[in-house]
Amino acid sequence: MKQKILLVDDREDNLFSMETILEADGYELVKANSGRQALKILLSEFNFALILMDVKMPNMNGFETAALIYEREKLKHIPIIFITANSYGDDHIFRGYRLGAVDYIYKPINPELLRIKVGVFVDLYTKNYLLQAHEQKLIVINKSLENEIHERKVSEEKVVELNRQLLESVQRLETVNKELDRFAFMSSHDLQEPLRKIRIYSDFLFVKRKEMLDEEAIKYVQRIQNSAERMQNLIKDILEFSKISNSPASLIKTDLNLLVKEVLFDIQDTINAKKAQVIVGDLPQLEVIPGLFRPLLSNLIGNALKYSKKEIPPVINIYSEVSMNMDKRDGAVNNLTTTPFCRIYIRDNGIGFDQRYAEQIFDMFKRLHGNSEYEGTGIGLALCKRIVEKHNGYISALSKDSHGTTFIISLPLSTINNVHKNEQVYQLLNK
After folding, report:
1. What is the pLDDT of residues 375-394, one digit of tens each?
2. What is the spatial distance between Cα 404 and Cα 307, in angstroms, rounded to a whole number?
3. Whether the Cβ atoms of residue 99 and residue 53 lie closer than 8 Å to each other
4. In what order do the strands lie in the sheet with 48-54?
5. CA 230, 237, 383, 308 torsion-angle sign
6. Closest CA to 120 of 99, 137, 105, 107
């Protein structure tokens, strides 16, 4: 960018002389032949790096012109070099400096001296201009930072308030959930008595007065009995579900092999009726809540028996593994973990289901098959999920239509008591 210099002199030969000396340095030169013309130019242009102005001019001399120039705020930054043919006294020179002049050049003009002085002051002007521009930039940046700090402070205050509201909401939800669990428990408990009477009187009617009933009436009584039984099973499952939240979280070191044996013993009649084969691998000892873990295993093994194929005997495999890698089966976002996981697999060769329902099957009352095909209340797997979550674990399912299902219980081994933890993990990883 060319720097602009304003040349002010009433004589054309002086203007031509200065123009000839300075044009080789690449400046943009603007000429004025009087103080008034210079002021007129400066009304519309004020981006001059330097003004070279003759002191002695008719009508308005250089000092008067300089005084008027520096009255305007936008022009105060432009340095002025006075050019004079007379050697005035010190008072006269000081007057020029007081008006804002930066230097004097005497006529006849020394071309080299003029070029050097102009170069120095133009360079100073350029650096000063850059400093001012930088200062303005810093002011803008500082203002932006102030706004950003203010906005961040406001945002932080909003986050604090939102966190406070969230904590209050969580507390309210916990209170509501506890009240709902309590309500479900009490309601289910209170419902059992009238339901028990319905079953008793319907059984009495069916057994004692069967000969008095026609075929249609008997069918209606049987429907009442079946509905009452389903209702009783539903109430029982709701009670079990509501008990989990209120169950004490006392972990006991438990041999899962013995726990599975107890479950299998309880359902041995169903296993025999189905001609099922249950293959149990070597399971670990874990710290669990036995009173909850037993119904968890019972539900999952019971499901494997219930949803078996009609013409094919069920084959159920129960085994485990320990891994340092956490994946989606353990509710992980990525594979980074320092906590080993124990996974317990319950795999069957039953009817299976479409994998897209793998998450939904753990919802309350969600069933993929109707009551006419398979009995159930739709609470069993929701109960399993809640039990596993009570152990800080995660349950998932892998399945395919007609190709069986594998339920995976993933438990963090950090729940093992610290006294036994290292020895337990070592044993499990080296099985």
Report:
1. 656 677 888 888 898 888 88
2. 9
3. no
4. 28-32, 4-8, 48-54, 80-84, 101-106
5. negative
6. 105
Cα first-last separation, the chain: 80
Helix axes 35-44, 62-69, angle to 10 degrees: 20
Q: DSSP letter string over 304-332?
A: HHHT--SSS--EEEEEEEEES---GGGT-
Q: Could you read off the pLDDT of 339-353 as tens digits, one per residue?
A: 678 899 999 998 888
DSSP code of residue 355: G
Q: What is the pLDDT of residues 239-267, one digit of tens each?
A: 665 556 555 567 888 899 999 999 999 88
> Is the model's pLDDT at 108 over the cut of 90?
no
What are the backbone dihedrals phi and psi of residue 261, each rounded to the nearest 5 degrees, phi first?
-60, -40
Q: Is the dihedral of CA 229, 378, 302, 262 positive or negative?
A: negative
CA-derived radius of gyration, the chain: 48
Q: Determine contact, residues 408/396, Cβ cutoff 8 Å.
A: yes
For tokens 């071309």, the residue is 111
Contacts of 285 (CB under 8 A, 6+ apart): 253, 254, 255, 256, 424
Q: How far apart are CA 15 and CA 52, in angstroms?
A: 10
Query: Which among 99, 110, 112 is positioned nearest to 51, based on CA atoms?
Result: 99
Residue 58 in 3-state DSSP? coil
Q: Mean pLDDT, to the nearest integer, of 356-362?
A: 84
| Model pTM score | 0.48
pLDDT digit string (tens) for 135-160?
888 888 888 888 888 888 888 888 98
Tokens of 224: 């009442």
Rounded distance between C-alpha atoms, residue 81 and residue 305, angstroms: 106
The amino acid sitting at 70 is Y
Q: What's the whole-number average pLDDT of the chain? A: 80
Q: Which residue has the tokens 């295993």?
A: 297
Helices 380-390 and 290-306, axial angle in degrees (round to 10): 150
Provide the token pair at 312.
Answer: 């094919």
* CA contacts within 13 A on the Cβ side of 55: 20
Which residue ranges form the domains of the chain, and what is each CATH number?
4-109 (3.40.50.2300), 248-429 (3.30.565.10)
Instruction: Of 111, 49, 100, give the one whose Cα is nearest residue 76.
Output: 100
